[in-house]
Amino acid sequence: MRCPSLLGFVLVLMCVAGDARAQTPSKVPKADTESWNDVQFTIPLSTKVDFLIQGTVRIGSNLTTPVDERWGFGFNYRIQKYITVNELYFHREAMPPNGKHEDEDRLSFGATLNIPIGGFTLVNRNWLERRWRHPQVDAWRYRNRVRIEHPFKLHTQQFTFFASDEVFYDWSLHDWVRNRFSVGANHAFNKHFTLEVYGMRQNDGRTRPGDINILGTVLRFRL
Q: Which of 15, 75, 186, 187 falls 20 to 30 Å from 158 in CA-CA distance?
């Protein structure tokens, strides 16, 4: 008579353990595959000043779920032929896979240097960012991106190939925390619309997910 009771007790333990496993949240993965999609509008205010509006949606969890949405605006000031000063604001809402909700307000200040070198163009962008974040701590961050561009033709259409590498220094961690390498191309369909497509690899040992394979698009409209 004791065997059925023992069997019932074992079955109850198995059900409780299975329910506990089901309720245990999965960890945020270290790596991911994502699609980053940007739409940018440029509105000239004068021959040297542009007003910018941008929206972004990032699809993560191996291209299945929106994980990051942001919008922002700013100004570009062309102070010389080869130097542009940048001033931008972004608001970000994110939900990493199996993670907690994040939000951020960001101010970016910097300059972009364009240097023609033969048939190539060297583009060096330096940004200093102030980030107000939750639940992470607020922080300052420095970004330096070096990009090489070269025009080419495909049949009768003009394209621009590019390769870039960007490094990030985070003062809250006192370390170089992130690197992004990308290759891609863009094509101006007319004076108002340019499409850019790229592949990127991000390495980041501090953020989760931090090591990300990215397929990205940028739709640029000049009004």
A: 75
Q: How much is the pLDDT for 26?
A: 65
Task: Give the whole-angstrom CA distance, residue 33 versus residue 213.
Answer: 5
SS3 223: coil
From residue 182, how far is each of 66, 76, 147 by CA, in Å?
22, 23, 9
Calpha distance 133→140 (Å, rounded): 11
69-97 tens-digit pLDDT: 999 999 999 999 999 999 999 999 998 87
Strand partners, 177: none
Measured distance CA(77)–CA(83) in Å, rounded: 9
**Of the candidates 33, 100, 103, which has an alpha carbon nearest to the alpha carbon of residue 70?**
103
